[in-house]
Amino acid sequence: MIAYPHIDPVLVKIGPLAIRWYSLAYIAGLILGLIVLKRLHKKYNSKLKSANLDDYFIWVTLGVILGGRLGYVLFYDFSYFIHNPVAIFKVWHGGMSFHGGLSGVIISTYIFCKKHQIPFCEFTDKLAIVAPFGLFFGRIANFINGELWGRPTNVPWAMIFPTGGNTPRHPSQLYEAFLEGILTFIVLFSFIHIKAIRQRHGMLTGVFLLMYGSSRFFVEFFRQPDAQVGYLIMGTTMGQLLSLPLIFFGIIFIFFSFKSTKNIL
């Protein structure tokens, strides 16, 4: 068993103001993603101006926060929030859903692309490359918070989490950080340099959806499901059920991308 590194979730506290690692993770993912997104647009001669991407930063931030929070409320603890509606706005207490955040990003991105007359998949193919940054930092923040830990296990790298009792558990947050963040980015970044892939509209978007959905579905076998939700149909978890549509649409995007020959990157 490996000792869990106890890290204070609060980085700095000044009076009532507390700066948490969890908040910084979201900020770091968004800012780093914006920087790389700008470089991708510049490298591949995009007509979208840098100022427009700064505008998009606001759109995607709202999409992530509003969508992520709403997704958690609807899918993971609806009965609690329906009786405590004020708690919906207490985001500092935690409770964000990636699937909800992704839905928020898709909606905000679609509106943004319509506004600036940009082909939707042309933009999301670039966005897919930087999305793993947010996933990586978010899972590391979950690990620091000692939340979303894994199921009981006796593997040599098991950890005892502060809120997980005295039972050694899978550090599932780190599994997700590697698969959803590092590995997904490496694959997508490698694909940029393959001309045959760059020329297929929506290919990178589909690969991202497929890789995230598959990675999340797999890691859920090692991750303890939320106590208020538990196991669902045939022992599946909410995370697995929500990942199935991503896998499906990822395959659809990849399939239809072969009909596109437009160089979009």
Write structural notes for this entry.
With 265 residues, this protein is mainly alpha-helical. The mean pLDDT is 88. The chain starts with 9 loop residues before the first strand and ends in an 8-residue tail after the last helix. Strand 1 and strand 2 (17-20) form a beta hairpin. The longest helix has 26 residues, at 50-75. The protein is 61% helix and 3% strand.
Averaging pLDDT over every residue, what do you get? 88
**Strand percentage:** under 5%
How much helical structure, as a percent, in the residues?
Answer: 55-70%
Number of helices: 9
- Helix and strand run: EEHHHHHHHHH
Which characteristics define this entry?
mainly alpha; 265 residues; two-stranded antiparallel sheet
Write a concise synopsis of the structure shown.
The chain has 265 residues and is mainly α.
Secondary-structure topology with pairs:
Blueprint lengths: L9 E5 L2 E4 H23 L6 H26 L2 H6 L14 H19 L3 H26 L26 H21 L2 H4 L4 H17 L18 H20 L8
